[in-house]
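Quiz preparation item.
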């Protein structure tokens, strides 16, 4: 009995935390530009209501490079202080600052120890506050840096097409200058798209997006039922550190070992499916001692399995694109 209770309490805590951390958007709070679908809507109206961005063709390659069984992508959203932009009190800001002083260096050292690449999505103003971050990432010569907004702005809340476009242009220009090449990957801040974000991301010429959740594997985004040619490398709240350890990053539950178990479960099935596992983390969250230790345990576990390709999302998108052109996509 005591054993059951011991198991039950952390699981319940995890469930409660997940439930409370999930965004209300799309559930009961109307968002500007996104009118609710009424209960008496016709089927046509419902279809219209969900049509803006949908999942198109699955783009799982028939084979991964060099006979690999699957691909693993570790990705880090380097949001730091900007998550407290609306309430910039000194102490909460320092929780974000931790990402630059301590979290990111720990992450980079872990990746070095295991010789694996990762993708980093950095809002321009986060990079501006700590210019050494980009230098530290580039110095490794194996990581990717992608766009994650100007100020970690919530795009539907910007509610101004010209303003949104200007922020995207500025973000691309900032990173292009800082990393010496134009970034090819886009991940929307807070994974939030406005009515026009997909159009803008296409126009800007990104190779891929990583903000949607309609599948576990690479797929093409459809815009109002039309093919876009935009490769989606999907993320998911389950494979993200935020719902487990946040909000407020206050040394919260659950035990990092439980988070490790969830991630391992996600990896194990992806491995069985010969598919893809993308993990999203934040240096100011996962960079803490007990959590980075759990991440290292996961990396060691994944590396112990034969045939795991550790890649950046850019490498995966490049590969998927080539395979699609050559008709080597699973049907
Ligand atoms: Zn973010």
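Solution:
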């Amino acid at each position: 009995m005591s054993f059951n209770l011991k198991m039950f309490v952390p699981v319940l805590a995890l469930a409660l935390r997940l439930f409370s951390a999930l965004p209300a958007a799309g559930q009961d709070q109307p968002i500007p530009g996104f009118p609710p679908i009424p209960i008496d809507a016709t089927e046509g109206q419902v279809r219209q209501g969900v049509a803006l961005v949908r999942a198109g063709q699955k783009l799982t390659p028939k084979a991964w490079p060099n006979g690999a069984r699957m691909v693993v992508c570790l990705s880090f959203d380097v949001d730091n202080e900007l998550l407290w932009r609306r309430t910039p009190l000194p102490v909460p800001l320092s929780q974000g600052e931790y990402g630059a002083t301590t979290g990111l260096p720990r992450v980079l050292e872990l990746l070095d120890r295991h010789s694996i690449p990762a993708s980093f999505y950095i809002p321009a103003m986060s990079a501006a506050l700590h210019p050494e971050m980009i230098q530290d990432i580039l110095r490794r010569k194996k990581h990717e840096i992608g766009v994650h907004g100007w100020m970690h702005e919530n795009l539907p809340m910007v509610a101004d097409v010209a303003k949104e476009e200007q922020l995207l242009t500025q973000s691309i220009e900032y990173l292009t200058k800082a990393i010496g090449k134009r970034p090819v990957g886009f991940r929307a801040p807070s994974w939030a798209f406005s009515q026009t974000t997909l159009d803008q991301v296409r126009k800007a010429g990104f190779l891929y997006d990583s903000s949607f959740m309609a599948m576990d594997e690479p797929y093409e985004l459809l815009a109002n039922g039309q093919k876009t040619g935009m490769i989606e490398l999907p993320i998911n709240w389950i494979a993200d550190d935020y719902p487990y350890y946040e909000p407020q990053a206050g040394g919260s539950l659950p035990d990092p070992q439980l988070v490790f178990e969830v991630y391992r479960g996600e990896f194990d099935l992806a491995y069985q499916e010969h598919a893809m596992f993308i993990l999203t983390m934040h240096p100011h969250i996962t960079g803490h001692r007990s959590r980075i230790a759990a991440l290292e345990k996961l990396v060691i576990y994944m590396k112990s399995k034969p045939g795991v390709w550790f890649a950046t999302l850019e490498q995966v998108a490049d590969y998927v694109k080539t395979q699609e052109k050559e008709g080597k996509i699973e049907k």
